[in-house]
Amino acid sequence: MPSSLAIGDFSRATHLTVKTLRHYHETGLLEPAQIDPRTGYRRYTTEQIPVAQIIKRFRDLDMPLNEIRAVLSAPDVQARNDLIAAHLKRLENDLARTQTAVASLRNLLEHPAPAVHIGRRRAEQVTAAAISEVVHVKDALSWYLGALGELHAALSAQRVNPTGSAGGIFSNAIFSHAHGEATVFIPCSDKVRAIGRVSPRIVPAVELATLVHKGSHANIDIAYGSLATYVTQQALAIEGPLREYYLVGPQDTSDASAWRTEIGWPIFQTG
After folding, report:
1. Is the pLDDT confidence value at 1 over 70?
2. 269: burial class by Cβ within 10 Å (0-12, 13-18, 19+)?
3. Distance between CA 249 and CA 254 in Å, rounded?
4. How far apart are CA 227 and CA 119, in angstroms?
5. Which of 13, 92, 144, 189 is 20 to 30 Å from 98 at the Cα level?
6. Residue 199 — left, alpha, or beta (φ > 0 → left; ψ -120 to 50 → alpha)?
7. Where are the alpha helices (DSSP H) in the chain?
8. Could you tell me which residue, 23 or 220, shows the higher pLDDT?
9. Distance between CA 3 and CA 33 in Å, rounded?
10. Residues 6+ apart with CB under 8 A from 37
11. 10 Å Cβ neighbour count for 187?
């Protein structure tokens, strides 16, 4: 029979606090080998030490308890490895986002903001194929990519030709309340038939102050800040949804550094 340890000794052996061990017991992740029915004292076996060490390393990698439980109860090695690989992939994605944020912050701190060219133009009314939904700001980029792909597929299936760059219309609520209506549209030569999320839409004309953001959307907030400063200083800003036009986007190239996004802020044109 394996040797047993009191919870304090097991804590020292595994570098897991007593509080953590009690929590793992309550959640069913790591149950004691024995519980004294009179005192409630927990005892663990030496054979449970490797399991505790594995759990500790998964927690060091921020794996949720339910996923650790799934790994430990996996029916075979392949299923276990698939679960671990999925978590490692998420960590890699998180690391990439962190590295991007660090690089952006360093650039803001170490380099002055470059001069930007801000123009003014009138976006004419167009017939378009569009997808509109209420989205959360954290899901906006993935939603945009999916909607844009669906729009291109619908136009191709109906043999309708685009007549201009794809665009987006974003309600003020997305920025002020983190969720609101977003629309992605593609101007087209003929009225598209409604299919799936795609529907025909008339995109109204609007006067815009514009700025072209170069590169991925990771730092697009900096361009928005420059444009907001301009329209505020010129006393041109009016209420209305903001626009984006994807001059070069993911449908054109997978190289995000080559993307070109025109940001449009609605203004009162004075001449």
Report:
1. no
2. middle
3. 8
4. 10
5. 144
6. beta
7. 7-14, 18-26, 49-60, 65-72, 77-110, 140-157, 172-176, 220-233
8. 23
9. 11
10. none
11. 20
Contacts of 56 (CB under 8 A, 6+ apart): 14, 15, 16
Q: Under a CB-based contact definition with an 8 Å cutoff, are residues 11 and 17 in contact?
A: yes
**How is residue 174 written in tokens?**
């997305």
With a cut of 70, say whether residue 114 has pLDDT above it.
no
Structural contact between residues 256 and 216, judged by C-beta atoms closer than 8 angstroms: yes
Which tokens in the block code for residue 90? 């998420």
pLDDT band at residue 207 using 50, 70 and 90 as cut-offs: very high
Residue 98 has which token pair?
């962190």
**Mean pLDDT in residue range 157-182:** 91
Tens of pLDDT, residue by residue over 117-138, are: 899 999 999 999 999 999 998 8
